[in-house]
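lol ok so funny story. i was supposed to be doing the assay writeup but got distracted and ended up predicting the structure for this chain instead. priorities right. anyway since i did it might as well share w the group, maybe its usefull for someone
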Amino acid sequence: MPLFKRILIANRGEIAVRVIRACRELGIKTVAVYSDVEKDSLHIKLADEAICIGPAPSIQSYLNIPAIISAAEITDAEAIHPGYGFLAENPHFEEACITSGITFIGPSTENIRLGGDKAKARRTMKQKGVPVVPGSDGTVHDEKEVRKIIKKIGIPVIIKASAGGGGKGMRIVYDEKEIENAFHMAQREAMAAFGKGDLYVEKYITEMRHIEVQILADNRGNVVHLGERDCSVQRRHQKLIEESPYSFSTPRFRKKIGDLAVKAARAMKYRNAGTIEFIVDNNGNIYFMEINTRVQVEHPVTEMITGVDIVKEQIKLAAGEELSYKQQDIKLTGHSIECRINAEDPEKFIPCPGKIISFIPPGGPGVRVDTVAYSGWVVPSHYDSLIAKVITCGKTRDEAITRMRRALGEFIIEGINTTIPFYLKILDNPDFLAGNFNTHFLEKFNNNKK
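and the output, tada:
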């Protein structure tokens, strides 16, 4: 008996393809939704059914809750998988699903609300004994409050949007003269991006690694973690390269950060799949940063070294199944790396939509490609420029890097520009190869190229 007879995927691109494949292996029928410019997209070709939900603008299609719910009702879909982005972390969408008698494949509405309010999440973790970066206890309402906090914790600080994500609504303050301007700029950007201007303040740790932990939780209070991922190679707070495990990880470090992630998940009565994100400073201190209440773009690196299919687990957990393994059953084997391939100019990072003339993905031992692209497909200009993810694994980090270099060298994409040449340069960088980098790595890397 299948867990669900039919699941609608409320998303597009490679994540829609990824969910369809997981459903097919579980014997579940799938319904794809698409905008009118994506009738030839791969996820439409692979799904059992497909419904157009509106014009190209996201607000009229992939963010159109009534249209998506209607599509699910028309096709008798019992559940909806939101993927990542779009409506994946929208509590109103989950509530609409529940009201319509449709299972939302993801965490609870309360989980999503807490994850979307970073100031409240930070306060909750602090109360439960999970370490947080020194800063405000909640939101700050004006620059005067920021000044009071700075007197306690010192400069530099970072002002962040409480509803933030993707680097929006963030400003770093290195001098007290910058406070007023930084506060108002962050507030305006937060309002424009999230419809809320709530801000909070943290001490800005200049030398840090961005380490996150994948967790899974069932409805009975069982929680496990699947090890850590290093997401420190970023551009403007957008992750570009992810790997697992952390290159300087030890069993003691993994246990410590894993236990903190499980503690954080239990503190919020988390369910389904999620990610607890941390800052790790040069002294090895670990601080809670935020919760991502969805499947992550970089989930394949964890799958490669644990053998756990995270998307399948999401579906099983949403159906009410109990976790089939305990923490001691989770074994990490080898090393895995992911490069996000975007349709962008590799030097200026400007989107490069257009028709792909030739598309030949790499293969061979230890290589996985998650993609929505194919020869003849037109990359639309209306959405995120991610067209593929290349994931490699090996017995060691060096072997995973060697395989990534080979895979990217084999990857043929003609007709548009991509970020592949940029990654090939990083993979030859001595600091990257030595694991000697932090969240400022690309700033140093780009300065060295000049």
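The mean pLDDT is 95. The domain at 134-203 is CATH 3.30.1490.20 (Dna Ligase; domain 1).
back to the writeup now i swear
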